[in-house]
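Hi again,

Forgot to attach this to my earlier email, sorry! This is the prediction with iron/sulfur cluster bound. I've pasted everything inline since the attachment limit keeps bouncing my files.
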Amino acid sequence: MNVVIRKAGLYTMKIGIPRALLYYKYKHLWEFFFDELDIEYIVSPETNNEIVRKGTTYAIDESCLSSKIYLGHVEWLINKCDYILVPRISDYGSGGTVCTKFQAIYDVVSNTFRDRNIKLLYYNIDPKAADFEMIAFLKMGKFLGKSKSRSLYAYLIAKQMQKCAQLKEIDEQKQRLSENKTKILLIAHRYNICDKYIGEPIITFLRELGTVPILGDIASKREALAKSIEISETLPWTFNKELVGSIPLYKDKVDGIILMSAFPCGPDSLVNDIVIRRVKDIPILSLMLDEHEGSAGIQTRLESFVDIIRLKKGDFNEKT
Ligand code: SF4
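Structure tokens for the complex follow:
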């Protein structure tokens, strides 16, 4: 089931971390922060059918698949820990804002599970209210009973570890880019493309077809944000800007682009439309996934897409 449990020697509480949404962005930051503070934590398992079913039951119909999955992970953690970590991100200041789901998720979780007696651990990121990340982590450390100096040390170590992990994955992706095979750039939020239920089957199938998946989310965020204006100068959402900015960074090194989104994602719908209109001279496939999507239909579309790319390259007999 792949549940992560980190036990400290002397712990007084256990934090539950839902393996969904921002976990995929802040995994190292959160885990190393709690490690350094000797706080025990548990990460919910990889997404499975039961988690999706539970999340769908609790969510309103209009929620995106990613938020439904998030609620399923929160539900899994209930009664398995003292606090569930649900941060509230308002925006990233000059870097842009975020989808409303990240602003509302704390209130959505507390209201959805108000009868289940859950306790939430949170921090706010809101530059307009001077809630910057470091201050937010110091406040969280204080809530957890840790001194300011210890929390600061834990935060700085965790931040460094997160940076190392990012540099390592960029290096690994550089190696994949040098492979002499058909390469496909996946423009998808990491919480979708790395999720066992949504994105992993797509990556696995692309590999089975003999192609090399390249993740748009693995790139220097600073460079991607700067490049995003080549696609659009007016996008408000930081995560989408980082993703579309990876297209100019990688376009000349890949053979096709897949835009993968979770139904019914508002930001992605708009952004994908812009990408399809403005990015030329490369095959683009758009996939919108929901909880009812069957794998057979997706695989057929992926196969056809890869065939088109190989035909265009004149590599129809490329070994798979
Ligand atoms: S950006 Fe889209 S997929 Fe992500 S949380 Fe918002 S609506 Fe859901």
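The chain is about 50% helix and 15% strand. The chain has two domains: 4-161, 179-313.

That should be everything now.

G.
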